[in-house]
Amino acid sequence: MGAVDKEGRKLVAPDGGWGWIAVIGVMMVNLSTRSIEPSFGLLFGDKLRDMGVATTGASVIMSALDATINFSGLFVGPLIRKYSYRKVALVGAVLSALGLITTFPAESMAHILSTYSIMGGLGVGFAWSSTFVALNHYFSKKRGQAIGLSMVGTALGMMAMPQAVQLLLEEYNFRGSVLILGGVALHALVGSMLLQPIKWHLRPEEPKEEENQQLENKELEYEAQSPLLDKSKIVVTVIPASGDIDKQEPISRKRSQQLLRIVSTGSMSARKRKESVISNISSMDFTGSTCQIHTHMGSDEEDGQPGGLVMKNLGRKSRSPVNNDINKNLPTSEKGDDKIESEMSTSPRHISYWKRVVHFMDLDLLKDLIYLNILFGLSIFYVAELNFKMIVPFFLNDLGYTKQDTAFFLSMTAVSDILARAVLPPICDRVKIRRRTLFAIASIFLGLSRSALAEQTEYTALMVTLVINGFFRGATLINFTLTISEHCSLEKLPAAFGLHMVAKGLFIAALGPLIGVIRDVSGSFPLCIHSQTLLIFTCVVAWGIEYLVTRTSSSSKQDNTDNT
């Protein structure tokens, strides 16, 4: 049950207010920790060539980095639940900065893997997951806009970082550049501090106009039906005589329904009045039971019951055959109430260790086949996205363009990316299309634009295709994580996002180096980029098959229902 204030009103996400400050904080975290990734080839390119590891080495380092980021999802859900998204984000910011700072004296692949990939990867994973969970707590209706704006920080970094890395390498070489970038990463601490606990900023839910109108109509209807009854709190006490129950005049079914309707309608009016009255009605027959019917207005804690119609069985003097028939005809869910309560009261010591782990980490999400297909699609797409960011600088260098040209290409790609992230989220929030559908549509155009890029060699053609690619990249990424929050409840979101990260890590570890091997074996960058497009289309095909299966299944069930 959600949080309520002292007056019993439900508290909901602010959808603004301090939430926009939290968005700025997330932008700072993303700018400080993730913007360097597209410039990895510029920053580490000469270093890796001196080590003699070329494209395969870069692919291994980046795959290890992203695998670490995503495998940190195993710990993110439990850590956020035990502590808070703010504390986990602060730890992530520190680890991310230390990972860069300790990389500056690196002279081997093992050193870079242990500091930049593992330590830095853990930091980025903790910070990224925590900020995403925080924004989902702060926003409900404007969640898409908040996520899109927060990702602008990453895009701004992607636009500025190539130029900054180029200047740093010219002035301070590899070691000095890495130290300075480590200092920049420490700014994520400031952004993490802005992620205040959501309970400080919750606001009462505003009733909808339609609900207010319905409430007024029901109140008028009640006053017309029962002017003698007070509208605040009604207790109907039914006590049968101690003699033969059959001698009592049983109330008709129609009259019973009318009375319950009046009492229930009175509870609607009671929400605006806090007086109380007790009315005893002795002519009713509830099959020999002594009952009370309460309608009252109060907080959720009052009498342990929410406001509305409540029936309490105080005792039974006798039991009629009618009552036995009613019990036999009760739905299974009602019959099993006692069984459910007994199961809930079972001592935790009787629960196996594995069930405790499943409950603590919400691993029951893995029983959801649709969720598993979402994980597959997002993971296979992310492998292609990661390798594309890594391969583009090498692709441009192979075509004979200088580092300055490459930095300018990447910056212009980031500009169109920012444009998509700033313009599209408000539109996506207003259209009545699922986030996963929007993501799949943008993915198709993204794959086509990348395959077109692979066949270009001229400066102008490369610039145009890279700008188009950047726009569609932004269009896909604004809905990338929202496909998870759209499918799962807010309570399950930390675990769902953590499992999503683990799935990405598994796919990156399995398929990431394979893309680099394709390039080194074939010697063709275009073939490598086309293979990434194939991965993107695999995501779309998997989701399309799921759509057809679920639609066919629902149609069959509907036909069976109509026939019966």
From TrEMBL:
- The protein's predominant localisation is membrane
Region labeled Disordered — which residues?
297-343
Q: Does the keyword Transmembrane helix apply?
A: yes
Q: Which residues cross the membrane?
A: 12-31, 51-76, 88-106, 118-139, 146-165, 177-195, 369-386, 406-424, 436-453, 459-482, 494-517, 529-549
Renumbered to this chain, the Polar residues biased-composition regions fall at 320-332
**A GO term for molecular function:** monocarboxylic acid transmembrane transporter activity
Its source organism is Cryptotermes secundus
**Domain named Major facilitator superfamily (MFS) profile: which ranges?**
18-556
> InterPro entries recorded for this chain?
MFS, MFS_dom, MFS_trans_sf, Proton-linked_MCT
Is Transmembrane included in the keywords of this UniProt record?
Answer: yes
Q: Where does the UniProt annotation locate this protein?
A: Membrane
* Name of the protein: Major facilitator superfamily (MFS) profile domain-containing protein
How does the protein's chain sit in the membrane according to the entry? Multi-pass membrane protein
Listed GO CC annotations: membrane
Q: Name one Pfam family in it.
A: MFS_1
Alphabetically ordered keywords of this record: Membrane, Transmembrane, Transmembrane helix
